[in-house]
Structure formats: C-alpha cells, structure tokens
Amino acid sequence: MSEDATSGPRPGKTYGTYLRVDELLDLQTLSSDPPEHDELLFITIHQVYELWFKQILWELDRAVVLLGQDERARASHTLGRVRTIVKVLVSQLDVLETMTPLEFASFRAHLESGSGFQSAQFREVEFALGLKDPAAVRRAEHEAARERLRRRLEAPSLWDALLAHLARTGHPVGSTAPGDVPGPATQDAVEDMLLRLYREDPGAALLCEAFTDLDEGVQEWRYRHVKMVERTIGAKPGTGGSAGAAYLRTTIRPAFPALWTVRSRF
Ligand code: HEM
Ligand SMILES: N[C@@H](CC(=O)c1ccccc1NC=O)C(=O)O
C-alpha cells in the first residue's frame, strides 16, 4: 500500500460519506422517555425492513422491464434475488422474537395508533406483485405515498408483465368460449395456458417456478409475522385498529393464485 493507514483521514470519499453513516445512525429516535431498552431493537428492525422494501421495489421494477424485453433468464435471476431478500426478511423475525411479551408491552403504548398496516412501501410491494386493493390508496398516511400507490395501481404489475411476455412467446391466454366478451383473463383460461406451458416449454416453466418461489416466500413472511404476533400480543386487537392476528391470518393468500391452483391439474 502506498498510503500509510495511520497517516490520518484523506480528503474525498470515505466509508462514512459514501454510505452517509452519520445521517443513518441519527434516525433511531426512541419514543419512550426514559428510554425503554427494547424499543431500539423494534425501531432498528423496522427501519431495516423499509430499506429492504425499497430494494425489493427497485428489483421488481427491473424484472418488469426485463420481461417487457423478453429477457426471460435475466428476469428469473432478478426474481431469485428478490426471493433471497425475502428469506432475509423472514429470518430477521427471529431477532424480534427474542423480545418477550412483557418487553414489548414496556413500550407498546408509545406506538399509539402506529402500525405496520400503514407501511406504504409494503403496500407498494403488494401492488407491484399484482395484489391491488384500491382502498389501500386512501388509507396511506400522506399524499406522496398515495401518489406512489396510485401510480402502481395503474402500472402493469409483475403478473401482468409475465402474462404479456408469455403471450408474446407462444403462450397466449385464450378466451374460455367463442363470443366471450374481451376482458381480464379468467383464472380458468390462465390455468389452461399454464398447464400447456409446463408440459411444452421447460424454459418458460422455470420462469413460472421463480414466480412461485417468490410467492411462497411472501406467504412464509406473512405466516411467521402471524406467529410472532400471536406470541407477542396473543389475541389482542392491533394498534392499527384491526382484530390483530385474526385479521392477519386472512391475508395469507398467494399473489399469483393460478400458479398454485394449476398444480391440482397436473
Ligand atoms: C412485535 C412485533 C410485531 C407485532 C406485535 C405486530 C403486530 C401487528 C398487527 C396486530 C397487525 C395488524 C394491523 C393492526 O395493527 O391492527 C400488523 C400488521 C402489519 N405488520 Fe406487524 N407486528 C410486528 C412486527 C412487524 C414487523 C417487524 C414488520 C415489518 C415491516 C411488520 C409489518 C406489518 C405489516 C406490513 C402489516 C400489515 C399487513 C397486512 O395488512 O397485510 N410488523 N402487525
Ligand atoms: N400493530 C402492532 C404494533 C406494531 O407492531 C407496529 C407499530 C408501529 C410501527 C410498526 C409496527 N409493526 C408492525 O405492525 C400492535 O398492535 O402491537
């Protein structure tokens, strides 16, 4: 090395200025005062989640572009990366589960009506996949978030991009009967297309398996979140105004249902 590591700071870009570490470490402000020891873990975990949500949205948008260019292998690769991030998100729950119900109760009141329910980026991820509930736009906490959700409500989802790519590459979704009014593809017609595709086009089938991997990963997260909620607050209602675990159980459903239902027909 030409530079002596002990010669003091060098001008220009450094670890801290490149990654903006000082700003990052300024963002963990506890609501409890005097500070409750366990609140820092709760904030850290959630902030890390939001950073990964940002990365997931970045990658999902890329996957839509790649599918639009019929770059099937690269789209699969990108979805594999998202799937791996989701695995990290699931395993992060282990850290939060080291918090006992009493430790959580020590600062829960400070959360007031705040809830994961209000995570705009989580809803954006759902919209990007194709799980679009227009009511989520109205519920977002501020206008910038509503605007982002409105944009994604109207933009083609990852699922739309898959169907368009498959249609261009020999797998159109046919109408169920002659004279059918054109409209969104019915689940039956999509299943028929997938059934043929899995038998006839192994390359396209692998892409569909990458979609299935991702969908399974998101459902794994939802399931583990429910278990964490049950062990932490039992059957109490949530701070967001829902029934809590009972509500969350109803959200464990696939984003790409046809990829699951078709399996009964092989
Ligand atoms: C001790 C830890 C946690 C508890 C007790 C908890 C509890 C809850 C409850 C009860 C709900 C239902 C909505 C409501 O508040 O009424 C909810 C929703 C939600 N939580 Fe958590 N949560 C915890 C950790 C997390 C973490 C680490 C994340 C990661 C971002 C998260 C993200 C979400 C999301 C996205 C929803 C909305 C789910 C949906 O509507 O499909 N939660 N949580
Ligand atoms: N909904 C949780 C509170 C909670 O977990 C939370 C509160 C504020 C910000 C994020 C949260 N995480 C997930 O819902 C509860 O009812 O205790």
What does this structure look like?
This protein has about 270 residues and is mainly α. About 60% of the residues lie in helices and about 0% in strands. α3 runs antiparallel to α4, α3 runs parallel beside α6 and α6 runs parallel beside α8. It binds protoporphyrin IX containing FE and N'-Formylkynurenine. Its cofactor is heme.
Layout of secondary structure:
Blueprint: H1 15-19, H2 21-24, H3 39-68, H4 72-96, H5 101-108, H6 120-129, H7 135-139, H8 143-154, H9 158-168, H10 187-200, H11 202-233, H12 245-249, H13 257-261
This protein binds protoporphyrin IX containing FE (HEM) and N'-Formylkynurenine (NFK).
Q: How many extended strands?
A: 0
Mean pLDDT: 95
- Over all CA atoms, what is the radius of gyration? 22 Å
Low-confidence stretches: none
Give the percentage of residues in beta strands: under 5%
Structural class: mainly alpha
Largest sheet: none
Q: What is the number of helices? A: 13
Pfam families: Trp_dioxygenase
InterPro entries: Trp/Indoleamine_2_3_dOase-like, Trp_2_3_dOase
Keywords: Dioxygenase, Heme, Iron, Metal-binding, Oxidoreductase, Tryptophan catabolism
Family: Belongs to the tryptophan 2,3-dioxygenase family.
Brief sketch in words of this structure:
Helix content is 62%, strand content 0%. It has 13 helices and no strands. Helix 3 (39-68) packs parallel to helix 6 (120-129) and helix 6 (120-129) packs parallel to helix 8.
List keywords for this structure.
13 helices, about 0% strand, mainly alpha, about 270 residues, binds N'-Formylkynurenine, binds protoporphyrin IX containing FE, globular
